[in-house]
Design a protein that fits this description.
about 400 residues, alpha/beta, 4-stranded antiparallel sheet, 13 helices, about 40% helix, binds pyridoxal-5'-phosphate
């Protein structure tokens, strides 16, 4: 017999994954160009050619297939630390970095390192729902904080929900699914509240900054680097989106020297990497990444897609906020039940994900990491869909 928890998870399997599979079937039936699959955040842009060259080059390194330090190769961590120092004016060396198996691996390792049973972790609605699974993996409790109409955190609600059991707060900006980048003002206010509460409860509250989309931003918008605002910040980063490498499972966790319990925390992250069964992040891709720390994919295609989609949808009469980053647009469902809207959209070969999969019913997520022609050709279909809904 499998565990009751996994039984529940099987019965409540990821809607996004299901849609992804459904999209594959629809494409076989109707042809790729006639299906508008906006379900999963799988990057559509090829990685820079240098990444593939660097992977090939890694094969020539002596003992490349061996076990290593659980935190990852020292030289790779040093290169990443130097790069962060240049970009964000930090003061890191290899000891501040633990290589991870993507952001998902990094988040699990971080939560495993921090949580005791029933510790609370605050997340801001709307949020990447895997957080709930990751937190519950380690018997933590998810505490949801609501957002305002611009999908920025409701800071009053935040302040009220922090209590002596609050162990961590997860921030994800640029945000999946809203595409919003939290303003510097929001970050200052949010971290001021956390500082005040740390003092009030004489407790450490860690800020976990989940940053897969840091580089996917538009119109030159700045994404604040959270360690500059709050010492107890753990940044989880991955190359899944910035270099289009989600299948390679590579990223890192960084912790500043002045984070509370720094030495123990770094040891905890390293041991957690081992005992969660990752042992270490994959060897070849670690070495390859070290050659590519200054690179990202060309994000201009996502920006173009964002513009075409946003303008097209607004012209059809849909309501949404223009994404400032990521490759997601969070659309207000024109009918109250967004799951019903997703079902109707499917009749038009449009696949979008219900907002309830991000704890925000009444909205749907459109992942525009597709070819630009897919976005362009979807607009007339969105229009037909809107006409149908309006005339029901
Ligand atoms: C907000 C967020 N965090 C974490 C992840 C997981 O990233 P990775 O594939 O690097 O594990 C994703 C993936 O889509 C994401 O959107």
């Amino acid at each position: 017999m499998i565990s009751k928890r996994i039984e529940r998870l099987i019965n409540n399997n990821s809607v996004i994954r299901e849609m992804f599979e459904e999209g594959k079937k629809l494409k076989l039936k109707y042809g790729e160009e006639n299906v508008f699959d906006f379900s999963i955040g799988n990057p559509s842009i090829e990685p820079p050619t240098k990444v593939n060259e660097a992977i090939k080059k890694s094969l020539n390194i002596n003992n490349i297939h061996n076990y290593m330090n659980n935190s990852g190769y020292e030289d790779v961590r040093k290169i990443i630390a130097d790069n962060l120092n240049k970009k964000f004016n930090t003061n890191y060396n290899e000891n501040n970095i633990v290589m991870s198996v993507g952001a998902a691996g990094g988040l699990n390792v971080t939560l495993h390192s921090l949580l005791n049973d029933n510790d609370e972790v605050i997340v801001f609605v709307p949020y990447f729902m895997e957080y709930k699974n990751y937190i519950e993996n380690f018997h933590g409790k998810v505490v949801e904080v609501s957002c305002n109409e611009n999908f920025e955190p409701d800071l009053k609600d935040f302040e009220q929900k922090i209590n002596p059991n609050t162990k961590a707060v997860i921030v994800n900006s640029p945000n999946n699914p809203s595409g919003i980048v939290y303003s510097e003002n929001t970050i200052i206010e949010l971290t001021n509240i956390m500082k005040k509460k740390e003092e009030e409860f004489n407790n450490t509250i860690y800020l976990i900054s989940d940053e897969p989309y840091r580089e996917i931003v538009f119109d030159g918008i700045e994404v604040p680097y959270l360690t500059h605002y709050y010492n107890d910040t753990i940044v989880v980063y991955c190359y899944s989106k910035s270099l289009s490498l989600p299948g390679e499972r590579i990223g890192f966790i960084s912790v500043p020297n002045n984070a509370h319990d720094f030495d123990k925390l770094i040891q905890a992250l390293s041991i957690s990497t081992r005992i969660l069964g990752f042992v270490n992040a994959p060897a070849l891709i670690q070495k390859a990444i070290a050659e590519c720390v200054n690179l990202t994919c060309d994000m201009s295609e996502y920006e173009k897609n964002r513009n075409v989609l946003y303008e097209g949808l607004v012209n059809c009469g849909y309501e949404c906020i223009k994404p400032q980053g990521t490759f997601y647009l969070f659309l207000k469902s024109p009918i109250e039940d967004e799951k019903e809207f997703c079902k109707i959209a499917k009749e038009y070969n449009i696949l979008v994900v219900p907002g309830s999969s991000f704890a925000k019913p009444g909205y749907v997520r459109i992942a525009f990491c597709t070819k630009t022609t897919t976005v362009e050709n979807s607009i007339p279909k969105f229009k037909e869909l809107m006409n149908f809904i309006s005339n029901r």
